[in-house]
Amino acid sequence: MPKETSMPTPVPAVQPEVKVFWDATAEGKLLLPKCNDCATLIWFPRPVCPSCGSFNIDWSQQASGKGTIYSFTVNRRGAGDLPEYREPVPYVLAYVQLEEGPRIMTNIVECEPESVKVGQAVELVWHDTGEGTALYRFRPAK
């Protein structure tokens, strides 16, 4: 049985221009902003396309929640500048390549950190912050 370290769920600082993204997390939706001018899927959520500079962004595309681990590290020391992350060690910090293309930084949960591997299939899970938002994390696919 996997050791489940209780991961902190700090409330994100929600800027008005990405509120639609964070509101969707409370509904269990991972939105991928898409530029209507050049079709770039944008990660991290922002109101301007990093490829062409357009502000013509569509916020309706929802990620499937499936991906693979691109890269990861097992943190065995708490993050000094993030008090919430000082205690729950060890934990996995990873880049997950979403099925749709973008690579996102996240935590891998619900498994032993030593079992995580590059290329491993993962699926989205949500951790509620209790403040109208949720944090996206991934676990090994079942």
Question: What does this entry look like structurally?
Answer:
This protein is mainly beta. It has 2 domains: 13-62, no CATH class; 64-142, OB fold (Dihydrolipoamide Acetyltransferase, E2P), CATH 2.40.50. It has 1 helix and 7 strands; from the N terminus they run αβββββββ. It has a 5-stranded antiparallel sheet, with no helix packed on it. Strands 1-2 form a two-stranded antiparallel sheet. A hairpin with a 5-residue loop joins strand 6 (121-128) and strand 7 (134-140). The longest helix is centred in the N-terminal third of the chain and has 7 residues, at 19-25. The chain is globular and about 45 Å long. The two termini are 14 Å apart. The model is unreliable at 1-5 (pLDDT under 50).
Question: Biggest sheet, in brief?
Answer: 5 strands, antiparallel
CATH architecture of the largest domain: Beta Barrel
| Subunit arrangement of the protein | single chain
Continuous helix count = 1
Order of helices and strands: HEEEEEEE
**Overall residue-averaged pLDDT value:** 92
CATH topology of the largest domain: OB fold (Dihydrolipoamide Acetyltransferase, E2P)
Count of distinct strands = 7
How would you write the strand order of the largest sheet?
5-4-3-6-7
How many domains? The number is 2
CATH class (first level) name of the largest domain: Mainly Beta
Which geometry do the CA atoms define? globular
* Termini separation: 14 Å
Percentage of residues in helical conformation: under 10%
Low-confidence stretches: 1-5
Find the structural class using helix and strand composition.
mainly beta
Radius of gyration, in Å, reads 16 Å
Strand content: 25-35%
